[in-house]
Specification:
The protein has helices spanning about 1-25, 35-40, 45-60, 100-115, 135-140, 155-165, 185-200, 215-230, 245-260, 275-280, 315-330, and strands at about 60-65, 70, 85-90, 120-125, 145-150, 170-175, 180-185, 205-210, 240, 265-270, 290-295, 305-310, 340, 345-350, 350-355. It is of the alpha/beta class. The chain has a seven-stranded mixed sheet, with helices on one face.
Length: about 350
């Protein structure tokens, strides 16, 4: 089954390439490379490339002409003619499936871009974690621009170079980089607000789950905690940190709960969703202990009770989408913007929002 999935994935990459040629070329047929060259470009086997050309020809999308090689047939997919295609890179571009997190962010940004024109479509780019492929994807698929969603720094840097050197329009969602337009939330300020809310409710014993968070988030949390202690006093809260992997943290928590240790708030650098059922076994999450998680963690699905940090993604995505189209239409005049994603705290009970915290 795995081999068949790999074959289908390789075939899909060539199919996307052909559709991109047709969608961006109007009524003009475009010549495609020979099968051996296609195999090299998309890192597939020669038989797979031959199969793709054969099946696309059987569908009427390609035709072989004597002296001209294999060319596209634009009239067979009239609904794709003269489209502007924007490539979407979610995380490292090698996800086998979409999580709630990646779909929530990626679809939010892509939909805001597509609202800006009936001729706009998006295409997920399967980079397989290789940032060096980004330029070839933009060139070969004739992309009008790039939408980056939570990508690693290597992909961000590759996109930045394309923007600076080639003028490729780029926007970055949930990340930061000088030289390109981005939107991200102020993690340090949001962490500080969590601590203020915990303190305001009279809670003092705080469990901090640090594992899986990025180093940047860890630095932001440290600086926000130091700020909190300066403003409210070093003894305002007692912090207990877990920084092992998930199983190590579970083992440590069992040990602590077995000794009768209690916490009245739990916060994490990333989602605490995987811990929620376990925490509910030992803690009264309705009243005695407050949990916190992001709306990107899908709190409805696991019946979350506690405060959800509700990021206003649509507002930031709209601002980025407008900027992206400005980059396309006026490359030299479009400003580089940095947008802060705003957040509010919403109290959930059993996965249902109950009230907003001012």
């Amino acid at each position: 089954m795995s081999g068949q999935n790999d074959l289908n994935f390789s075939y899909t990459k060539i199919r996307q390439y052909v559709y991109s040629l047709i969608a961006t070329s109007g009524d003009t047929p475009q010549r495609i490379p020979a099968a051996r060259h296609l195999a090299e470009i998309f890192e597939v086997s020669h038989p797979t490339a031959l199969r793709a050309i054969r099946e696309l020809s059987e569908e009427g999308l390609l035709v072989t002409r004597r002296g001209s090689g294999t060319v596209t047939c634009p009239d067979k997919v009239a609904n794709l003619v003269q489209k502007r295609i924007f490539g979407v890179v979610v995380e490292n571009g090698m996800n086998s499936f979409d999580s709630f997190y990646s779909m929530r962010l990626g679809s939010c940004l892509a939909l805001e871009v597509m609202k800006r024109g009936m001729d706009i479509v998006t295409q997920n780019l399967a980079l397989s974690g290789d940032a060096s492929k980004l330029g070839a994807f933009v060139r070969d698929r004739r992309l009008s621009g790039l939408l980056l969603v939570c990508p690693p720094k290597e992909i961000v840097e590759a996109a930045r170079r394309l923007h600076v050197e080639n003028g490729t329009p780029v926007i970055l969602f949930r990340g930061q980089c000088d030289g390109i337009s981005w939107a991200d939330y102020d993690f340090a300020n949001e962490w500080f607000r969590r601590l203020e809310l915990i303190h305001r409710e009279g809670r003092r014993r705080v469990l901090v789950i640090r594992s899986s968070g990025s180093e940047l988030h860890a630095q932001c949390a440290r600086s926000a905690t130091e700020r909190f202690c300066k403003e409210y006093g070093a003894d305002a809260c007692q912090f207990f940190e877990l920084d092992g992997d998930r199983q190590e943290n579970f083992d440590r928590l069992r040990e602590l709960f077995g000794l009768g240790v209690k916490f009245d708030a739990v916060i994490g650098l990333r989602s605490i969703g995987p811990y929620c059922d376990f925490l509910r076994e030992y803690l009264d999450v309705e009243e005695e202990c407050r949990l916190f998680c992001l709306n990107l963690a899908n709190p409805e699905a696991f019946g979350f009770t506690g405060y959800v940090i509700d990021l206003e993604l649509e507002k930031a995505a709209r601002t980025l989408a407008v900027n992206l189209l400005r980059q396309v239409e006026d490359p030299s005049g479009a400003p580089v913007i940095h947008e802060v994603i705003e957040a509010e705290f919403v109290f959930y009970r059993n996965g249902v929002p109950v009230s907003k915290e001012s």
